[in-house]
Each structure stands twice: as C-alpha cells, then as structure tokens.
Amino acid sequence: MSQNDGNNAYWDANVRLILISLVVWAVVSFGFGIILRPMLSGIPVGGTDLGFWFAQQGSIIIFLILIFFYAWRMNKLDQQHGVDEE
C-alpha cells in the first residue's frame, strides 16, 4: 500500500466518523426535539415530557457524549494509521 492510499484510508475513516456523529446529533436534536416532539409529548421524564427534554437537555447531553466518542475513536484511528501523538 502506498503512502497516498494510507492517507486516503485515514481521511475516509475520519470523514465517515464525522458524518455519523453529525447524523446522530441531527436526529436527536432536530428529529426528536422538533419533528417528533408531538409524538413524544405523552412520555413523562423528570416532570416534563420527553420531547421537551430532548429539545432542552437531551441534544446537549448527546452532543457532549459525541465529543468524547469522537476523541476516543480518533485516538484509535490515529494509532491504527501510525499518526498518534504518543
């Protein structure tokens, strides 16, 4: 495998990870918090309904989880492709 093939594989995996993370965040924040909110309004969570919870706290919590997931996965990807910092 040439150096260019290795770089392409690394960046393909990186972009795939970014796209998956963005799709998850969009589905949670826009989908559950806005589009599906009327369907989720009957499910109680912490004194409010699930749709409101996703719109106010859920999307932020999922975003923070995605940040840590992305950092963890990128560290593994860096190690696999020999570009890690350690």
Automatic annotation (TrEMBL):
Keywords: Membrane, Transmembrane, Transmembrane helix. The chain crosses the membrane at residues 17-40, 52-72. InterPro entries: Na_symporter_ssu. Pfam families: DUF4212. This is Sodium symporter small subunit domain-containing protein. It comes from the Bacteria. Residues 8-84 form the Sodium symporter small subunit domain.
